[in-house]
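Researcher: Last one for today. Full complex below.
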Amino acid sequence: MSNATTRTGWRFRQPSVIPGFGLTLGFSLAYLTLIILIPLSGLAWRSAALGWADFWRIALDRRTLHALEISFGTALIAAAVNVVFGTIVAWVLVRYQFPGRRIVDAMVDLPFALPTAVAGIALTTLYAPNGWLGKPLMALGIKVAYSPLGIVMALIFIGLPFVVRTVQPIIEEIDKEVEEAAATLGASRFQTITRVLAPGLLPAVVTGFALAFARGVGEYGSVIFIAGNLPNISEIAPLLIVIRLEEYNYAAATAIAAVMLALSFLMLFVINLLQSWSRKRYG
Amino acid sequence: MADPHIETYDPEHEATSAAITESRPARAVLMAIAFVFLALFLVLPLVVVFNQAFAKGLETYLTSLNDGDTLSAIRLTLIVAAISVPLNLVFGLAASWAIAKFEFKGKAFLTTLIDLPFSVSPVISGLVYVLLFGAQSALGPFLKAHGIEILFAVPGIVLATVFVTFPFVARELIPLMQEQGTGDEEAALSLGASGWQTFWYVTLPNIKWGLLYGVLLCNARAMGEFGAVSVVSGHIRGQTNTMPLHVEILYNEYNAVGAFAVASLLAGLALVTLVLKTVLEMRYGAEIAATRGH
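Model: Here's the assembly. Have a good evening.
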């Protein structure tokens, strides 16, 4: 057996009695190429066709830079907020018993299931100056809707399940004996959590943060209603792409998209590294 | 492999292991934080949708839904989902069969490529098709000469939706089928079943709940997609407006009841999705535990 495998050397796939490899892989690759790869490489090709000077002129345009800064900045804040509250939510869902726990657990996925446009108009109505929450906040001098803070609110909504659903399974897997051992060795509960449990949760928290951040950067539907969309102040990068498209300025739309895409892929790469690192350490 | 470690609540156990849980006040504070946060960010927006939809009574709600443009938006949304979900379902089955049942070079890379649409902004997902099929593109003049409408028509909306919902079924099925391994299929084949019989009578029953789960999530996203569809649709009222786009148009016209009435249908879809998802998780979870057992 081992003789046979060593003799063949490099081969594309391991032998198997199961049929259908060529058919399923062929179909998958063809479909992937047609739907995803060709359109995406079209974008890369079009931005390359712009030429180096034109590309950077558009990418470093003041309005573009502000839009990118707003998209990445608000996504960063929202993801940080979600890390704190999402981890608490995950902890409460796993560790504590209370009536209706299953309903609360199911509700966490609402942002996955609720269309972004619906979330957008609902949050805007909620946080508008005369809304249920907007009015009292306005009295305190805090303007949420039609400001960058509104964008953060929408992105917190969108990103929450990413953090909870990444951290939750890891909390479920924690071996209670580890905590018992820490307790018997004289650690206080606070020490057990910060010194024993937190390091184990860290990779999942970081992954959840990265996923929520990545989603927030590209988010469009829930943001455009609440943002107010003032250029240089509350205009996100995806909206600027849409505006450039409506002006038939394909070059600018392409360049902004290429910059965003490059940054997203960088994040995807980092997420994958983090995941394989955490799998290696805790899998 | 370790046994599935399922913790069930046991009040006595809790009483004896005070050392591994927080003090009562700490628990109360954490639960309060979690509940207030979830109430503010999840429950209130949902309440607002239905509150606004019914703000002027049931009759106004029904009248605003029974509008020609609204009905055509509902019809278009159903058509788009009915085309794009099955396409991604077939792809999900094919890709997970190739990836989970075989060992080949570049598998991890292929899996990463499948997840690619998740890290692309929806607006860019629409933009790539505008660049491919628009009047300014290399294909544009050809399409125009032959009267083929892709952008600002149903095919473009379907393509953008397929792009955005591309990974949903595959990413549910791949881990599930990897978990199940190839033992059942090899047994069926050695007993003389054909490839199709093996798939139909052995694999499919094993993955049916996971498959349904993926289809459910795929469908919710397909019906609710906004950004990608917005870029390719052209917003032609009564023709290329899906439900989420129609919500935007009504909202921007200050027709709050109309916008929230359509939004309430989408919110209803989301709630049904969540209920079905929870039910499936209860069954599907048991199924995975069962397959781990043998």
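The first helix of chain A runs from residue 2 to 8. The CA atoms of residues 27 and 33 of chain A lie 10 Å apart.
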